[in-house]
Amino acid sequence: MKKLRSGQALVFLLVFVMISIVYTSAAIVIIAVNSSLVTKAQEGERAKNLAESAMEDTLLNLLRVPNYSAMSISFEDGDVTIDIVGDTQKTITATATAGKFVRRVEVTTQLVDNIFTVNSWKEIY
From what superkingdom does this record's organism come (predicted)? Predict the structure, then answer.
């Protein structure tokens, strides 16, 4: 009877080790996936921040020079293209690219009697 039980502890130990390895591997995979998703979210946020920063800069330039025209700006984190359409009522679009992410911000402005007004500010999807 002792010979039948002599390997029973070893079998339980092997099963326990296998289950531990599976759980540890699953945890490592989950951590790697979450890390990748966080990096992608940061790139998307970086693109949005670039677009909004370029838009603010463009609005300041329009205050100084009402005939300010479209331009492209290269940053360390990405590139931004500014498009301006209109005369007294302008639609300004800032398109930013950071990594694989592209974000667009659109602002409509109006210049009447030397009063510069921002009518809308939105992100375009």
Answer: Bacteria
Q: How far is CA 48 from the centre of its chain?
A: 6
Domain ranges of the chain: 2-124
Tens-digit pLDDT profile for residues 8-36: 888 889 999 999 999 999 999 999 888 88
Give the tens place of pLDDT for each residue, 70-101.
889 888 889 999 999 998 899 999 999 998 99
> Topology of 2-124 in CATH?
Pantoate--beta-alanine Ligase; Chain: A,domain 2 (3.30.1300)
Computed over every residue of the chain, the mean pLDDT equals: 89
From residue 89, give the alpha-carbon distance in Å to each of 15, 21, 62, 109, 117. Answer: 73, 64, 12, 6, 9
Instruction: Look up residue 42 and give its amino acid.
Output: Q
Round to whole Å and give the CA distance between 121 and 93: 10
